[in-house]
Amino acid sequence: MRLRFVLGDQLTRDLSALGDLDPSRDVVLMVEVMAEATYVPHHPQKIALILSAMRHFADELRAEGITVDYVRLDDPENTQSFTDELARAVDRHAPEAVIVTEPGEWRVWEMMRGWEAALDVPLDIRQDARFFCSRAGFAALKDARKTTRMEYFYREMRRRTGILMEGGDPAGGQWNYDHDNREPLPAQIDLPKRLRFEPDAMTREVIDLVAERFPKHFGDLEPFGWAVTRAQALEALDHFIADCLPRFGDYQDAMRAGEDFLFHGLISPYLNCGLLTALEVCARAEAAYDRGEAPLNAVEGFIRQILGWREFVRGIYWTEMPDYPERNHLNATRDLPEVYWTGQTGMRCMAECIGTTRRHAYAHHIQRLMVTGNYALLCGIAPAQIAEWYLAVYADAFEWVELPNVHGMVMHADGGLLGSKPYAASGAYIDRMSDYCTGCDYDPKGKVGEGACPFNYLYWNFLIENEDTLSKNPRMGLPYATLRKMPQTQRDAIRKSAKAHLEGAEPGPRQPRLDADW
Ligand code: FAD
Ligand code: DLZ
Ligand code: SF4
Fold this sequence. Notes:
With 518 residues, this protein is mainly α. It has three domains: 2-126, HUPs (Rossmann fold), CATH 3.40.50.620; 135-314, Serine Threonine Protein Phosphatase 5, Tetratricopeptide repeat; 339-505, DNA Cyclobutane Dipyrimidine Photolyase, subunit A, domain 3.
């Protein structure tokens, strides 16, 4: 017999490790292990989502007549690690070979490469075919200098896949409709009611287990409304395409207090754990455009995130590992402030974004980029510490996608592989794109001093602190020209306000304090 080991983010029926499966002689192995739930302190909803989706997936395989050897987290014999559980399974089944699909994270890739020698059994590691661009394919594009910018890579992927193409040309005559996608949200607008899924008995059992085992992890476990089966994830996708996609483009960068989802997809956890595939998501979005049900700026903007950004960051991850996590181009060394775990701050934008993160294990892209990310960049937080936070708190967080977004897009720690300049912004950007500043303890127009918006003086302080490195960047020419004209008294006032804020923002523990009541 052959043992087919399926990981918790590989819950796809046509996974390469399940190809040519013979139910009469093969066994599928799935294991719930503490090591995977605690290598960072994952949000409880993320753990519940993965474990419940794993259990449902195992049942679906069994319903097809496939034998599944499933080790539960609370099994007294459980050794709680991938390698040791595979070793026990090899003892149980004495397989002629173990078949796996390459994992999403370097950490597990290193483990996996040791299995053949350690377990003395032939190991077949198969490519993960769920992506448009393979790891080797991206490396080849990199050699051909087609990955220097996401936009070039994205156009190449459009040509290769034929998605949103009319013959050899992009649909509508343009590759990118981003300039149409920057509208703030109008005061009066009907927001779609989002689909949530009531936990069934299997999910309830998992929720109880997670509540018991991970009581101190940051984040609310309930209410839990994520899809845990492929059928539910498809329902969530259809709901997004019908009710949200048409206005996704216009308001992609908008933020509103008390509204956690706006027109976003809420599908990244499903894509990343395998309940949905990137190809079917893009195909359904394109079909909505073909039927005239969603405009091109929305559909192109959405598909660019998946066919472009998602594939690009994966390629960067695998071509830059293993030393990618160590990069720190701007030499940022401050500790992560405790506000990231408590959300307790008079800065309304930060309180809102950390609040939605705690409630849902979710925040939409612009909240992650321009609020929590921008603040980390401007404060000069050590990239490894903020990366660990992002990996812990989101249901969609797996290192292959999280790390390039944090190190590359947000912290500029890789020196510009994802963006030619840091996405640093003052409070004016947040004020334009949200209603957070109304009701904030700080004044978005204030430049320095106690009541002024911290983003304003932190922005200029960031430019001053990184003048040697960033002033040479041609795309930073404008702000540095302004800085050079700034009177010394104003520079001094900026430095003083920033120092007071940074010293007041008490550095917190890297992991949630275990005595805290979140
Ligand atoms: P939508 O706004 O509806 O977008 C549709 C899809 O596009 C998403 O589901 C996602 O699959 C893809 N996508 C969009 N932007 C990106 C991007 N920059 N990189 C990769 N895929 C993208 N995404 C993750 O999946 N996992 C992460 O751990 C993660 N960490 C992030 C950390 C930071 C600091 C930032 C700035 C972004 C991060 N993202 C991450 C990207 C993005 O924020 C999320 O994919 C998105 O918010 C998920 O919500 P959604 O499904 O509603 O997305
Ligand atoms: C995230 C996660 C969690 C919380 N638990 C498990 C688990 O118990 N068993 C499992 O197979 N996978 C889990 N995962 C997902 C893995 O961490 C993921 O497969 C690796 O990070 C490789 O990408
Ligand atoms: Fe955030 Fe500044 Fe606006 Fe307050 S004033 S919500 S801190 S941007």
